[in-house]
Amino acid sequence: MSRVAYVNGRYLPHARAEVHIEDRGYQFSDGVYEVCEVRGGRLVDERKHLARLERSLTEIRMPVPMSPAALRVVLRETLRRNRVRDGLLYLQVTRGVARRDHGFPPPGTKPSIVVTARSIDRAKLEGQAETGVAIVTVPDNRWERVDIKTIALLPNVLARQSARDQGAREAWFVDRDGFVTEGSSSNAWIVSKAGAIVTRPAAGGILKGITREVALEVATQQGLKIEERKFTVAEALAAREAFLTSATQVVMPVVRIDGSKVGDGRPGAVARALRARFHDTAELGP
Ligand code: PDD
Asked: Rounded to the nearest whole angstrom, what is the distance from the C-alpha of residue 246 to the centroid of ligand 1?
């Protein structure tokens, strides 16, 4: 079946879905995005993702380009036309097409909106969760506003490739003081020796992940001790467990950090339990 993309009001065959070369996303990475999990044809935590999109837009001084109700229709139609049951939805908004000039384009310039959706092999993802993944650490060389979900992802791209080159799934950024910030496209967690779930506070140095927020709720329901605080690579290496969260991977156990085993080198009980119960708490759309 051929894929379809939504581009500025039209549903186009994926292979012919294009934006102009002077789109500010292409020229300046002047835009923001969201990625939602799709489960059984329904969007997971859509409301939270759209609220974060609105926040990202406000932070880059862009108006919301269409009403949430209209946007929801587009998201559903994109899923429907691509017949996605289990997969991912991608939504990007840029400041539109205009002659290249660093300052904002003239008033009235239409933002560009692109929505794509694709299926994923859920069995494969579950298989990875059964064995866990390896991560490597890299210096965090990003700008300060990583709380905005911007499409300017070059440091993340380089970090992820560095992980791939070393046979790992993800790279964890480490700040100047030796504390883990987050992954190139995920949030980072450990279970301390004392058994507490530890993850960096959303107030500094990370994107406030929607999966992170829901996983914290699940952990609270499970009566787990939660510490929102920074942790070092050394603490992660000595931890009982490590895992990462994102819309694409949900809760994914981390079993190796920079080539060293975490715990016994197998997915831990806490990560497994959070993954198993995650979708009982996440909001499933209509
Ligand atoms: N990335 N941190 C970063 C830097 C991310 O890019 C992401 C998500 C997260 C996790 O956020 P959430 O739980 O809301 O997905 C944390 C998406 C999945 C991506 O870029 O593909």
From this structure: 5
